[in-house]
Design brief:
Layout (H helix, E strand, L loop, with lengths): L4 E5 L4 H12 L3 E6 L6 H6 L3 E4 L5 H10 L7 E4 L14 H21 L1 H11 L2 E6 L16 H19 L4 E7 L15 E3 L2 E3 L4 H14 L8 E3 L8
Length: 240
């Protein structure tokens, strides 16, 4: 059986790098997309199938990467790249909110749209293809616990975009799913040194290994009939 192909964005470190490691172990053709391949030493050491330059905040960069990969059938697109700015009520700024929206919401949309031909090619070849949007629990309006004015809003927008993509791509046998990775000990979260408190709940950070291992278990079970669903890394369905 021929190997399948996965494209992962934002994989110079953290969750994205872990996805690359795990899919290489499974024998997949892994295409790793990063802003600057020349400085991604850990990624280069893994020697994935391909490494491409892609900055999700730059539309020309996205289109260039899609063109470079013309002809590649992509079975799984993992939109992992993103940024976080912890803006609270008193500190949120227009500039920060717009930057978060540009990278976390518009960026994954542009990447998904640019790679639709590659996803369709895989769906024709293997029956279906999937897009995974790495979102966040704070993007859930129903579970809002305050603050995260920029980051939470950007992830809520990503969730809405993903719902629309799921509807528009289902006829092409391309599924679109939203996953919450949990609170993960990465550079983005300061190593998870500080517990998160949501109401009466205290959330401790999990490792990238657990996060990605659990997310892959969820991904492996997804079917086209579920397209447009929003899940936690635990497999729990989340409310919008």
């Amino acid at each position: 059986m021929a190997s399948k192909t996965v494209l992962v964005t934002g994989c110079n470190r953290g969750i994205g790098l872990q996805f690359v490691q795990e899919y290489i172990k499974l024998g997949w053709n892994v295409i790793a997309a990063v802003r600057d391949p020349t400085t991604a030493d850990e990624l280069n050491a893994l020697a994935p199938y391909k490494i491409v330059q892609l900055d999700i905040g730059d539309e020309e960069s996205v289109l260039s990467a899609a063109k470079e990969l013309d002809g590649e059938a992509i079975d799984l697109l993992i939109n992992n790249a993103g940024i976080i700015i912890r803006d609270e009520l008193a500190s949120a700024t227009k500039a920060n909110m717009l930057k978060l929206f540009e990278v976390n919401s518009v960026g994954p949309f542009l990447v998904t749209r640019a790679f639709i031909p590659h996803l369709k090619a895989a769906a024709v070849k293997n029956g279906s293809a999937n897009v995974i949007q790495v979102s966040s629990l704070v993007g859930s309006i129903s579970l809002c616990a305050g603050n995260y004015y920029g980051y939470g809003t950007s992830k809520a927008a990503l969730n809405m975009i993903s719902s629309s993509l799921a509807i528009d791509l289902k006829g092409d046998n391309v599924g679109v799913f939203v996953l919450h990775p949990g609170y993960v000990a990465t550079d983005m979260t300061g190593g998870g040194a500080v517990d998160i408190v949501r109401g009466d709940e205290v959330i401790k950070a999990i490792s990238t290994e657990k996060c990605v291992g659990d997310m892959m278990s969820v991904i492996n079970k997804l079917t086209l009939a579920e397209t447009g669903k929003y899940y936690s890394y635990t497999g729990e369905a989340l409310p919008w």
